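User: Hello, can you help with two protein structures?

Assistant: Certainly.
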Amino acid sequence: MPPAAERVPRRWLAAGRASRSLVLVVVFVALLLDNMLLTVVVPIVPTFLYMTEYEGANSSVAPAQTEPAPPALKAPPFSSMFSYFDNTTVTVSGSTSAMELVKGTEISPPSQPPATSPPPPSGCPEGEEFLAKENVRVGLLFASKALVQLVVNPSVGLLTNRIGYHIPMFIGFVIMFLSTVMFAFSGTYTLLFIARALQGIGSSFSSVAGLGMLASVYTDDFERGNAMGIALGGLALGVLIGAPFGSVMYEFVGKSSPFLVLAFLALLDGALQLCILQPSKVCPESTKGTPVFTLLRDPYILVAAGALCFSNMGVAMLEPTLPIWMMQTMCSPKWQLGMAFLPASISYLIGTNLFGILANKMGRWLCSLIGMAVVGISLLCVPLAKNIYGLIGPNGGLGFAIGMVDSAMMPIMGYLVDLRHTSVYGNVYAIADVAFCMGFAIGPSTGGAIVRAIGFPWLMVIIGVINIAYAPLCWCLRNPPAKEEKIAILNQECPLQTTSYTTQKTLRDFPLTDDSDVEAENAE
């Protein structure tokens, strides 16, 4: 190959590594696959555990109940009457007697019910008590991912400050791939629980590093809002595809098939990261970031984090409880359990992309305030549905409103750091991801227990009222004040590397002369 032809791919890679758009593509794909794996298990796990544990246990007990057939030949006293006039036996009550079988001239008795009762004519699954307990177990399994992510996130934020964002992104891909393969071949609750927890570690690396990378690349607030909206569109698309894709593949192909497809897509994502991000390169932040505990003492960051937590807690409570409620009340087949989340996913995709631009114009605080109110109203309407079509409106409104909150709060987190702290974003997006994970940890783990105690409708009432009550707090983010020491800290620690929110020191003209230092001291 001629030298000029060899230089073309190298120039393309060099241009790609310097392109902000390709960085956005990498983050988009990583969030897409993470959230596809997050939601693809939602319709699979409840029915898989029901089939393997409840139906498997009953099928093993049924033969033992049907084996002792000979004693059934004995009839209770006075169950039949023999007529010597025409040599026939007339059955009065009970089962057929041994004498009747010998004579072979009996009148057919009424059919007896089988040893195991047939399924209800409505097609609803049996085992009400098992399904009630399964609410709690499935909720804990879903929450394990968020609980692990909750613990790992602060460490990942510190790690990104030390070595940059590229290596943590690639570590997240590797762990995500291992988790996906483990999901494909897990056949017990314990293995599924471990795979879900492992996914939490990989998701922590991918989300914190990816969002921090975007915030560092897009320093302008308007551009950052648009980029965050597109990246959250990847999250929304993963949620959109995951549940319907999982339910259809599980129904018609098998349990392992959706996870094997995701594992293949994860390999493509890893190849993309190798080409664009250079994960072997250590790129530490030039400025020391604000400590996590300092950020957690900022009331404005806490208000934004709370909005992320409570708005996402609603859909997190729906994930383990809605499929089981549909199985009990609507007698829904397996493919409908995932399709029920389709309206929420489509509207979330629309909301994040639409309000990534509109939120900056209408005010992000107002966008999040309206979004949280609509989240609460939509959750209150979910129990009113009588079939899957009745869930279209509430779930659609829920997804659209969560898209409003997420697309407004993610840029606000970066803006608050620029305005009130040092412009290093690993720690603040670790806090944002912690808030997101708290919703997905508290929601499923407590939702299943609440459903078992007081029922699914009351669960929706509780979380809906919480969102409506929290919404007015978003007004506090209308005009957050800047800290006075912000400019002084930036001038001392990083006079030459500032963002659009900071004021740079006046630089001396070049070329410098020997008397430049003396003149500068006199000027000060």
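That covers the first. Now for the second protein you mentioned:
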Amino acid sequence: PPETRAAARARPRSGPAPVTDVAKLCVCDLLVAQCDVNCCCDPDCSAADFSLFTTCSVPIVTGDSRLCSQKAAIYSLDVEANPPERIFQLIDQVNPSVFCIHATNYKQALSFSSPEMPTSENFDQLLKQFGSASFSAEPDSWNMNTDAQNPSDVNETYRYEYGVPVQTVDAFLRLPSPVVSSWCSDANPAGFLVNQATKCIRSVNVEKCGNIQAVSMLFYINSSILAVSMVNITVQSIIVQSQNGMRTLLNGSDVLRLPMILDELCINIVLGVSYHITYTDTGEITEAAASFVLGAINKEALSIQQSFEISFTQVNTKPVPLSGNPGYVVGLPIRAGFRPLGYPFPVEILFAALTLNTNKYSQFTILQSTSNQDCLAAQGARTPILFGYNMISGCKLRITAAVKCQHLTQTLLDLLKGQSFPEYVASFGNSQAQDVLDWVPVTLLHISEQRIYNTFQSSCQIPVSLEIEVKWTKYGSLVNPQARIVNVTATITTTTLKQLPSGRERTIPVISSVVFTDISSPAEPGYKAWPTINAKLPFDFFFPFV
């Protein structure tokens, strides 16, 4: 019955039991019905034989080393026992390799089978099975786990961990993506807390656009997410894109717009979907919303490009844009913060937004130059420090004899440092506030110039420049290095002022600058620093070539 098939599809599928039992494997068992010396896995050996062993010639027995996780039989000798005894352990071994086999559940792959040759009789069947842009090789003989919880039971205790596919009533939350080619595959699940953005090509037929599920809004919102309480996917916004690229935001998003043919055009085609998932700190999904971009295609169109996004936000928090993942991206702002009062107690919020009130994204900022170059008029104008961009800005300050030294010093200091100068800078573009070791302290230095301006009777030290040096390095693989900040130094330079005669005034320049230094490897004068490998090739490496 349909109800039985729907319930079967909802249950999780598991592969068959492993073919190889490592507890019964023994590669050193060479003699038939006799005990092999120092072969701790030999079933023909008795406890008296094990007491005479000096070591285990095969200490560990595993199956296929390419599996991500497998059973391993560990053999050892307890020499402190009297007499010595053999110790046997069966453990789960994890393969650290990135490229590994999750499960050997495809029985046909365990032995070679001749491929089916296309003939006039089976050509249509093979074309239907393998002719599309992507196809499934899952065997129909997978065993169904009848003891698994049904969806109604799962809803009571369903919470997610990082990377786990977001389950829905019928399968999982789809995030189409290109697989081998650029064509869309709907078999890509959305992982919990994994922000993704994909683009792919979808083949379309204008005459049958109403029957293509993947270009309809209903395809992306018609299923509920499995959570502690069932979560329906709501429509957050709908944007309509014209054929010339102009986009218009619709006022009402509660109307479901399905593809339909109008004047040789197929309208309401889904060009983009953006999911936004809200969750709690316990991994419970509480809300799910989708934003759509709809468009129109004419009858000549054979394919369209679709874009998909998914983002996650914890409840009672505001999303903060990242500056890289993980390393910094050139041109994006440097993220910064400060240690709140009372640290390490409480530890709920370690770093918070800083500098000016208008800086809501916790960015490192410097003084922004204005057209009139007046320092007093430039107060409050800040610009974010962009990674990899050396910057310099400044203004001019007109000083008279009536100005008080203490007030002038504090005004210039606030002008250079901003309202709240950061104490820490994120070492990576995606550093989280709770990861304390991912934040680099800002070293603040003060130096004094010997230059003297005759303005005040007694000496008055005022800050006139702020120089920020950001040292960064290439982190990780040489193939895809990630930019990581390792040191930030801010140097404030002060100068001495003396009194001028009454009625006289003087103009002093105030400067802020930022310099980025790559310390990945030492640089030769006049040359750009590149990463080097301290290795020597064999003398005949290029033989027979020179």
